[in-house]
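Section 5.1 Outputs to date
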Amino acid sequence: MIKRSAILLIVIMSGIALSLTSCKKDNPTNDNEEGIYADINSWIQANMGFYYFWNEFVPDEVNESQVPETYFGNMLEPSDNFSYIRDDAEALLDELSGSSVTAGFSPAFRRFLDTDEVFIIIEFVYPNSPAAEAGMNRGDMITKINGFTLTLDNYIDLFYEEGEVSYTLRSYDPEEGLSDEEINIELTKQEVSTDPVLYTDIIERDGSKIGYLFYTRFLAGENDQFIQRVDEVLNEFQNEGVTELIIDLRYNPGGTINAAENLANSIAPPSVTSNEEVFVRYEYNEELEEFYIENDGMDSENLVARFSDDPLNLNLDRAFFLTTSSSASASELLINGLEPYMDVVSIGENTFGKFYGSFVLTGLNATPSHEYAIVPVTLKYANANGVTDFRNGLSPDYEAVEDLLAYRPIGDTSDPLLAKALEIITGEEGPPAKLLFELPYEKLPDPVELKRGNIFTDRPMTFPKPHNKPN
């Protein structure tokens, strides 16, 4: 059963091999011939002036000759790292629905301490993907792509290249370091529809049944197929009498609010869902906020997302969440939204810290139509207690860190994060958690994921048409 407290879609795409970079325009930083981009830039200016969270930075005059990428970038608030522009709207919409051209694995970019050596560790592989068919597995280390050694200057460009690709794998030993032996794997990236329910289990300990869900992204999917997949798992947990729940969000950078609400309505206490308590609230720029208040009232679904009653409820008093700095946006929204109403136990590392959202605006139906899409920050969210602005992420209740160079299979009860949750539930001491400073590498950023990592929203009920920014 699909559960929604509002007809609102919020999506954030994950760090797997999804190519969200736009096609590069020739000479993208310089002005072009006068007037060539008049229609597109007028469309950008009107939408940004009405929707952009910091719309005071949007110019009143349209630059008709500047290429759209430059024009868009020049109007962003200086600290805004999340808004972006694409010139392939159709491809973007496909990616946001969970279908993209990819190798089919989630990368962790790392650099050995005191060196410039960059490597990729595979966090997980989607079944039936090119990577799975090529025999790639969680924990594999990639040191070269297409024959080029990974460096700080090239690792992002190499990873996001499309088409045929060759990965060079090496192994690592804590005592001996990198092995000299190299294994080359060649594959062709293909369109893959990814089921975010990667692994589930019911762990029995001391007569207790503990439901475990490894969830990679909050996606609804075509015709809500991925929401229905989650419901199937939750229904199994309910039928089997699960009394404790562990949701593994360690690599989950977010997804649709429909999917987040669907999960929240099965986790929150029945008294919360039946009373339709506040899940999260949204804040916009002054003009857009006034529009929603005047047209829908203070309790507008555009301003407030609420829990909703549903028979598929696990009747829990507490829930466990496993997190890392890769857990972002909708992952944080779920944890933060549940916090006021139940015992939320988080284990792992601080989450990323994303509390902004965006509308996905395309020119496909503009007059004249075009293939550009802009994804500007348009809102900020807070939970029922007003908690927002968690720039350093949400802190875990218990710190535990996994070492991908000594990984455990997904769902392995000796995994440091999962083991800590089981220790709290059962009272039986688990293996010691590795401390952060003991790891021989540091995490590297993924600017592509950073750009796509805010929350994207689509509002079919009240989505006002933009107008030119008033003087």
